[in-house]
Write a structure and sequence with these properties.
Helix content is 18%, strand content 47%. With 223 residues, it is of the alpha+beta class. A five-stranded antiparallel sheet has the order 7-1-9-10-11. The longest helix is centred in the first third of the chain and has 11 residues. It is built from four helices and 15 strands.
């Protein structure tokens, strides 16, 4: 694997994906971000098994060249180290090369860095394919729903169900409810799609999603 990529584009994507990575785990591969490079572009994936985030950087976007691909491949790099390295580099573009499946070199015109690659085969398989029914919601509306309910969730793990926000869709109405038994917050909105489901999502995960969602759309995958 060898490619040259826009530093700003890579840094932005790393900041998004790293929100799903934890250092509080004895499993080394879960402290890393998976890089998957093919002819179309670069996919970055992070996961702590509870929250998984994936983002795709196309080779070209709106006539702007994001990536120059020399050879494809995959590797897993420690999220903290690779993010810090990319932030410190001053150049507009950086080169990343995987050598012998174990060592990754990150270089620009002035600096050279080396990182050990974590075994990519140990990274958990995460299926992001949307094969089921999908409910679409605007990102700013989702942020509003989360902000108006998340404060009432519990921080105590003794009753895990109370640490999340319950999302219930009945027809075209979404109802979000959170409670720690002392406080109760409820938000109702009308959505464009019609569906029926009931799910509770951990507040920690929703808080991270709220930070990275701008004007993007939320996809509820209905199983």
């Amino acid at each position: 694997m060898r490619f040259i990529i826009s530093r700003n584009v890579l840094e932005e994507s790393l900041n998004i994906v790293s929100k799903a990575v934890t250092n509080k785990t004895p499993i080394a591969v879960l402290t890393g971000i998976k890089f998957d490079l093919d002819e179309r572009g670069l996919t970055l994936t992070g996961s702590d098994t509870d929250l998984s985030i994936s983002t795709f950087i196309p080779v070209e976007n709106q006539s702007r060249q994001n990536i120059t691909v020399f050879s494809t491949g995959s590797c897993v790099l420690n999220a903290k180290y690779v993010t810090e390295i990319v932030k410190k580099i001053d150049s507009d573009r950086i080169e990343i090369e995987l050598i012998d499946s174990t060592l990754v070199k990150i270089t620009d015109q002035k600096s050279n860095f080396s990182l050990n690659s974590i075994n990519v085969a140990d990274f958990p398989f995460i299926d992001f394919n949307f094969d089921s029914n999908i409910i679409v919601m605007k990102g700013d509306l989702l942020k509003q729903v989360i902000a108006q309910t998340i404060f009432a969730t519990s921080v105590k793990e003794t009753r895990p169900i109370l640490t999340g926000i319950n999302f219930k869709i009945d027809g075209n109405t979404l109802e979000a409810v959170a409670t720690d038994t002392y406080r109760l917050a409820k938000k109702k909105i009308v959505i464009g799609d019609t569906a029926y489901f009931n799910v509770t999502i951990p507040a920690r995960n929703l808080d991270e999603i709220s930070k990275i969602v701008k004007i993007l759309k939320l996809f509820f995958i209905l199983y």
